[in-house]
Write a structure and sequence with these properties.
Layout lengths: L1 E2 L7 E2 L15 H13 L4 H13 L16 H7 L6 H12 L3 H7 L11 E3 L5 E3 L11 E4 L7 E4 L2 H12 L6 H26 L6 E9 L2 E11 L5 H14 L19 H4 L3 H5 L10 E8 L5 E2 L3 H14 L3 E4 L3 H4 L14
Parallel strand pairs: 9-11
Antiparallel strand pairs: 1-2, 3-4, 5-6, 7-8, 7-9, 9-10
Helix pairs in contact: 1-2, 2-7, 3-7, 4-5
Bound molecules: zinc ion.
The site of zinc ion has 6 residues, from helix 11.
């Protein structure tokens, strides 16, 4: 737009156009793609797996993919950028209700739509108690059916486990790796915006992470299923119950030794990887050779992280158990050097 004033040359208008351009495609996607190209290396078996992931990340954009409004698609997430900070919570509440998960949304998501003060209320004894859905141990737990867990049900006990359950249902199946990676990036951005006041106030230095797991068939990379999970978050008592749940879903966790920094079962991968064994025996696994690609991102910072030593030990145990699976991290290389311990590449060999 040019602004004219009488008798003067046109002035340059440096204001950004309105409405602001949508943040597409996510800039992060380029770095994941470049990283995958770097990992491809020689034409080995693992190299061919990386090529399948590169093809998936390069798939044509397809923003309105949801075949049914019950599913989450990129266009709905992009709309949230133009609405208020809590709009992603409202979107998840509406998805929950279309899958019959209304009660879970009412207990664990709805309170975030109100003032933060409402999270602290007096109990029957007149004591101030924490009712925040992010941390409280006193809220009702729900068992949500999940076919891809060993016992077919998942206990919802916190905001993040509620979001895991809602996304389990509303993430569309059989999408490209690009679609899933873009969904993760938008969800991360929007959750950071909605939760920043809570996360910076209640969690202090604690880093909450979101992790995407995509299991796909090497024969057809659109034969795929995505799961999104989170770090174990909550007051000490709640957190230890969540970790206990995870130990039961993923027995391999019991063989992982703690590095002493955080408990085994704390990582976001410990939630998503529990779905890998069943996904390997699902129709996706009929080719008997499933690729499990994962990407873990800090919710507030947005940086991707390579797996910690505990997660790498877990991956090695899973690879020994499953034999036909390949587990690859999409996290960009520069962050891997921050991870102490053995060669990162060892986890990609089975
Ligand atoms: Zn970890």
């Amino acid at each position: 737009m040019r602004v004219y004033q009488a008798g003067q040359n046109p002035l340059r208008d440096n204001r950004s156009p309105f409405p602001p351009p949508l943040p597409i495609p996510p800039v992060e996607l380029d770095s994941y793609l470049q990283n995958a190209r770097d990992q491809r290396g020689a034409n080995s078996r693992i190299g061919r797996r990386w090529q399948i992931l590169i093809n998936g990340l390069n798939a044509p954009r397809n923003r309105g993919t949801a075949a049914h409004p019950r599913y989450l698609d990129i266009a709905a997430l992009e709309d949230c950028y133009n609405l208020n900070d809590k709009s992603v919570i409202a979107l998840l509440i509406s998805k929950a209700s279309s899958w019959g998960l209304n009660q879970i949304a009412a207990v664990y998501l709805q309170p975030l739509m109100y003032s933060r003060k409402s999270a602290k209320r007096a109990n029957a004894r007149g004591e101030l108690e924490d009712y925040s859905p992010l941390t409280s141990v006193t809220l009702t737990a729900f068992a949500v059916p999940m076919e891809t867990l060993s016992d077919k049900k998942y206990p919802v006990r916190s905001f993040f486990s509620a979001v895991h359950a809602i996304l389990y249902y509303c993430l569309p199946h059989n999408q490209s790796l690009r679609e899933y990676t873009e969904i993760l990036t938008h969800l991360r951005n929007l959750l950071a915006r909605a939760l920043r006041p809570y996360l910076s106030e209640q969690m202090g230095l604690f880093r909450v992470k979101i992790s995407l797991l995509v299991c796909l068939s090497p024969a057809n990379s659109r034969d795929s299923r995505a799961i999104i999970g989170f770090s174990a978050v909550g007051k000490k008592q709640l957190k230890s119950i969540i970790i206990q749940d995870r130990m039961e879903h993923l027995r391999a966790l019991q063989d992982v030794r703690s590095n002493g920094t955080w408990p085994v079962g704390n990582c976001a991968e410990d939630e998503t990887f529990a779905h890998i064994p069943e996904l390997c025996s699902s129709p996706i696994g009929q080719s008997r050779d499933v690729i499990a690609a994962f990407l873990t991102v800090d919710i507030l910072e947005g940086n991707s992280n390579g797996p910690c030593q505990q997660c790498r030990d877990l991956i090695n145990i899973l690879l020994r158990q499953l034999r036909t699976a390949t587990i690859l991290s999409l996290a960009v290389k520069r962050n891997r050097r921050e991870v102490e311990g053995s060669e990162y590449s060892s986890i990609t060999i089975n």
